[in-house]
Amino acid sequence: MVWKQVIDPFNNIALSVLVAAIPILFIFWALIIRKMKGYQASLIATAIAMLIAVSVYGMPIKLALLSAAHGALYGLFPICWLVVMAVFLFNVTVKSGQFEIIKHFMASITSDRRLQALLIAFSFGSFLEGTAGFGAPVAITAAMLVGLGFNPLYASGICLIANTAPVAFGSIGIPITVASQVSGIPELPISQMVGRTLPLLSIVLPFYLVSIIAGVKKAQEIWPAVLVSGITFAFLQYFSSNFLGPALPDVIAGLGSIICLMTFLRFWKPKSVWRFANEPAATINTDISYTNSELVRAWTPFIVLTIMVIAWGIQPIKDALNSAGMVQFEFPGLHNAIQGEDGTLLPKLFKFNYLSAAGTAILIAALVAIPLVGLTYREGAGVFGATLTQLRFPILTIAAVLGFAYVLNDSGMTLTMADVLANTGALFPFFAPVLGWLGVFITGSDTSANALFSKLQYATAQSIGVDPVVTVAANISGGVVGKMISPQSIAVAAAAGNLVGKESELFRFTVKHSFIMLSLICLIVLAQAYVVKWLIPVYEMLGSKKATVLPDLTKGYTYLIVLAVLLAVIASAILMTTRKKQQTPNLVN
Question: Which residues cross the membrane (predicted)?
Answer without folding.
Answer: 12-32, 39-59, 71-94, 115-148, 154-178, 198-216, 222-239, 251-268, 296-314, 354-377, 389-408, 420-442, 513-536, 556-576
